[in-house]
Amino acid sequence: MKKVKKIMALGLAATLTFASMTGCSSKSDTNSGSNSDSGTASGTSDETFVIGGIGPLTGDAASYGISVKQGAEIAVKEINEAGGVKVGDKTMQLELKFEDDQATADKAVTAYNTLMDGGMNVLLGCVTTGSCLAVVDLAKEDNILMLTPSGSAAEITKNDNVFRLCFTDPLQGETMAEHMITDLHYKNIAVIYKNSDEYSTGVYEAFAAKVAELGGTITTAEAFADGEDFNTQLTSIKGTDAEAIFAPIYYNDAAHVVTQAADLSITLPFFGSDGWDGILDTVTDKATVEGATFLSPFFSGEETAADFVANYEKAYNTTPDQFAADGYDGVYVFKSALEQAKTTESADLISAMTQIKVDGLTGTGISFSATGEPQKAAKFIKIENGEYAAAK
Amino acid sequence: MKNRQTDKQLIKNIAITIIIFIIVESLLYGGLLSRQFRSLLIPVCINVILAVSLNLTTGFLGELTLGHAGFMSVGAYTGALVTLNMNLPMAIEFPVALFAGGIAAAIFGVIIGVPVLRLRGDYLAIVTLAFGEIIKSIINSMKITNGAMGLSGIELHANYKHFAYVFALTVITIFAIKNMVHSRQGRAVCAIRDNYIAAEAVGISVSRFKVMAFVVAAFFAGIAGVIYSHNVGTLKPTTFDYNKSIEILVIVVLGGMGSIRGSVIAAIILTVLPELLRSADEFRMLLYAIVLIVMMIFNSSQIKQRILSSEILSRLRRVKKEA
């Protein structure tokens, strides 16, 4: 009996060894492939440039990863159909390889290594902050150009090969504070945020600092860790003289907050961060979010986005959100970097990043600073008559 | 006679360990391992340690616990804070981190062990589940752990480049728990599982051995946590939620309650399987779940028993013996 188990164990070990062997044979294939890509300068067309992507395609945060992937797929398809990217004297086709990380750090590392096995040239990722932090140093080691579409923690861009397409959490908080106090003249603001979430905490902390700087008052900052019952926090907000509520949280939590606020007959206007995108599909009664304003890099009702929205809806049967737009823009950023650098060498691509200007869905004339941060204007979206509209 | 047999067994075990180690190392340094599999080496070791240590409480003590990720997170954070604040060479820093992480988790093991004495079965499962969540919330609200933002920039003292150390730690864990189970204490633990009242009647101090099992399991979970934090380099409280505990429990159940070898094999399979299924794209997790169900059914079915006791295998055994 025991021996049988041992035999089985050995058999399994053998299978695993075999599996890794097959893994490596495919690696050497792709390696020689990518070597000829970058090594020979002679201009033959139809070479492919591999864009790797990492994001959650399964699990709690799956919607973000799937959106980024689909947005990027649209861009890759558009570029390839238009003949590819002109890199120096040759034209290259783009290829997107997107790996699932389930929004966890250790899976992101394996996903990254899988992509490196697959001959990745540049990395569009990661989608979530935790994964980005786990991957940045590996990307530095390989000196791969990395562009995160939506990882918003400040430390992500500490290495010079990493760039960011979205706003940082602190910047969102500051922008919203300026908007609420300088533009809309609110004095007393209540906050509800999720203290178990790095994004929410990051936005809130910067918001609070900026409000204090601009002479406003935060009447109460109510924190929650998890759950769907916000009555305690909302009742406490109701008891203060707040004129508006700032809720830097994700849309699923925000949907519960607004519904319960309506039940408590709180009529204060809501303000949110970019996590609010998608809230109209989540709330049961759209009247509860009427008049709410949030920050978003992308607005699907805009004229400039019409083509993208139409293509996206045709391909995936759903309206694109900001993550899809980030994914789409990310691919176009790589395209301009390639055209600027005129080569596929990582080092040249990285230095080209600070010289390019990209007109994308998430902003016109997006450029990148040497510290990896994007320079683009923020967009405010207001919910009017149950629809998203650009806020004045 | 008996001694000679155990000696033989020991030599065989050591030989198998060394052979596995040599195979993996030569694959690693010969550049034969793809990067994907290279980055799986450490997670496999971590899951082996976690599963084997959880098997001590779930399999041998017979108590269903759902808070193993809690112990792991205590170890992970303690170890990470040690290396982040020490800035000494790895040879000093990492062993200290391992020790500190293990001890910190063991202390939490004592804390949870005391209320556990009063509970059994379902109640215990719920208490340990709650305990895991409490640890998560505490880490979430502490300044030193950087709250929800978590820690990052932890030195990678346990990534694939240091596979030899991690492998050694894994082997030590397996041998320690295996030996413990076969010792006087281990037999007492098993006796408690098999018949609580009878064990008490023959004079086994039930509470003492229960706490001991918890503390040892927690210690090794803490070690696994330290390795985890020094492999990935970042830590977030949400990583260690009850899903992680259940993931470990799944490994133990698949490998078989009270089978250390089973735990090791199941840990390897369940870590590598989702990666092998990457090509299935969006069906990956669905396939993974289906494979899991099939394996569980197979494991507890008559078919497996029949295969194990079938003619062919016994003949094989005979052939092997003759040779």
How would you summarize what this structure contains?
The complex is a heterodimer of chains A (392) and B (323). With 392 residues, chain A is of the alpha/beta class.
Q: How would you describe this structure to a colleague?
A:
The complex is a heterodimer of chains A (392) and B (323). The longest helix of chain A has 38 residues. Chain A has 392 residues and is α/β, with parallel strands linked by helices. Chain A has two domains: 194 residues, Rossmann fold, CATH 3.40.50.2300; 127 residues, Rossmann fold (3-Layer(aba) Sandwich). Chain A is 46% helix and 21% strand. Chain A has a seven-stranded mixed sheet, with helices on both faces. Chain B is mostly helical. In chain B, strands 1-2 form a two-stranded antiparallel sheet.
Q: What is the element string of chain A, with H for helices and E for strands?
A: HEHEEHEHEEHEHEHEHEHEHHHEEEEE
**Biggest sheet strand line-up of chain B:** 1-2
Q: What does the average pLDDT of chain B come to?
A: 88
Counting structural domains of chain B, the number is 1
Shape of chain B: globular
Largest sheet of chain A: 7 strands, mixed
CATH architecture group name of the largest domain in chain A: 3-Layer(aba) Sandwich
Placed side by side, the strands forming the largest sheet of chain A appear as 8-7-9-10-11-15-16
Instruction: Estimate what percentage of residues of chain B fall within beta strands.
Output: under 5%
Structural class of chain A: alpha/beta
Q: In CATH terms, what is the fold-level topology of the largest domain in chain A?
A: Rossmann fold
Give me the Rg of chain A, rounded.
Answer: 23 Å
Oligomer description: heterodimer
Query: Looking at the structure, what is the overall shape of chain A?
Result: elongated
What is the CATH class designation of the largest domain in chain A?
Alpha Beta
The number of distinct helices of chain A, counting runs of at least 4 residues, comes to: 12
Distance between the termini of chain B: 22 Å
If you average the pLDDT of chain A, what whole number results?
85
When the domains of chain A are counted, the total is 2
Largest interface: A-B, 50 and 54 residues
User: How many strand units of chain B?
Assistant: 2
Membrane topology (chain B): Multi-pass membrane protein
GO molecular function, one term (chain B): branched-chain amino acid transmembrane transporter activity
Keywords (chain B): Cell membrane, Membrane, Transmembrane, Transmembrane helix
GO cellular component, one term (chain B): plasma membrane
